Amino acid sequence: MTDITLIEAAQTRAKGVVRETPLLSSPFLDEIAGRPVFAKAEVLQHTGSFKFRGGWSAVSALPVAERAKGVLAFSSGNHAQGVAYAAALHAVPSIIIMPRDAPALKIENTRALGAEVILYDRAGGEKREEIGARVQAERGMSLIKPFDDAQVIAGQGTCGLEIAAQTAALGITQGTVLTCCGGGGLTAGIALALEAHAPGLTVRPVEPEGFDDTARSLAAGERTGHGRPEAGFCDAILTPMPGILTFPILHRLCGAGIVVTEDEVREAMRLAASRLKLVVEPGGAVALAAALFHGAALADGPVICTLSGGNADPGAYAAILAAG
Amino acid sequence: MTDITLIEAAQTRAKGVVRETPLLSSPFLDEIAGRPVFAKAEVLQHTGSFKFRGGWSAVSALPVAERAKGVLAFSSGNHAQGVAYAAALHAVPSIIIMPRDAPALKIENTRALGAEVILYDRAGGEKREEIGARVQAERGMSLIKPFDDAQVIAGQGTCGLEIAAQTAALGITQGTVLTCCGGGGLTAGIALALEAHAPGLTVRPVEPEGFDDTARSLAAGERTGHGRPEAGFCDAILTPMPGILTFPILHRLCGAGIVVTEDEVREAMRLAASRLKLVVEPGGAVALAAALFHGAALADGPVICTLSGGNADPGAYAAILAAG
Asked: Domains, chain B, ranges and CATH?
């Protein structure tokens, strides 16, 4: 089970590899929000998202003999790249099982980061779990799950340790931390780190409209799905339900979920580009959208929001900037 | 005159205000360049460019009584915002004299950062120097020049101190530092800092095709202009001639200048967005363009390039990304 000891151990293993990402701000964003806003720039992490933290943590935590056989992941996006690059830096093989209809660029990037990619037919009834089980049986590779894995959550928690240190350096002891929330790995890791090192900061998960399984689950006190297909504008964070390991942590430590609209996400992406000079993908911009446009739902005081990923499709991203 | 002592004093005054910007990299860029490439992300500096370093240095170096009367600058771009924000943080007034045909967004941003903006008619024969002299006489404000100012060069040199420390931490002792070069303030400051703290790193200034006054001057051994109007794609760095203070430093310390094409700059901007998740303006991308596409002109070994500014016009920027 992930606890602060496991997170601190992940940070020790991450030293010199995982980037400490900056906490950025702009007077223009403060003015829109009516309060100080700080952006935790995880888009600057290796592979363009916080997922490298969890990938590195999980791969580096494996016993050497087991690690040497390689690692395996299912992912159509950022987790794929995070695990592939973590494996490559450890000089061990990785296999990523991706849907055949994933964006060509993400498949290409995952291969370029050193992974063997196995494509499966999402519509045609092929089960990625069956492919994964076969690969595990044949090659003895370790499966790295995207969020329901204690060492992955611990890795994402290193982002929370940095937020605790960076806010302390700014003299911030009370405030709200908004996280971009899919399966809850980043949110749970940050919440555990802040519980130990910055208990005056309250974590509030943010999701896009229609995909608010975490907000619903927090309100209901139990894991609840949103009942929608796993596809949409904020593709990086559209998990059907909070995780088995992550939800109890969220339930114990987080405030209520916040839901933002797609238009708010687009405007947050444009403001991240013009005011912070950062490329943020839709799923990575929901927390900033909440900071800027949902202030009424937040307690007074400064807000820290994760910009959790920047792997936007170039054409779609250009169109969003052009529409501003 | 700027020397390492003045730069280190500027760094002391900058502590806790000027951001230490990260040195970023991507295996995808390394592959294109065929060598390790590191990007000094000055787009993440306050006001979106390294110019805040020089502005802060100059304003903070003024005697208190003089500073209280305020500061004055001529600029259509990044220097305006850097000086305006430095003055605002010191709670002293600033006047920025800008051409009436400057982009509306840059005028608006400069005002929003606390400056009083005086517009002049560039085509109609109004002399900005006359307006400036009148303001100085009436209000006793100190003029902060964009590059030919010892304290401004010292402030830009703090970027070089950071490069020296960051490369040392990576174990890099030999290599090339490519700078985006206009009047030479950043290039001179970095060259002085590296001379003292990382003498194995050679600075090479980079300019856009047709505006290569620094490359020509270095080749000629004396200040030489490019003879073109001060307008074009890489607007932030289109000065007519190297500075009186900066050129002797460049001449003593820098290698030959490098010239890049506009198409190379556009491709570098797209790669900065897709691989580093950074918004870079044309003038801020010339050094990366040289790192990626002019390797034959460089000594072997790693390359560090400044991404010196990110204040791109949103519409033009979106069009460049869309054309990729």
From this structure: 4-50+149-322 (3.40.50.1100), 52-143 (3.40.50.1100)
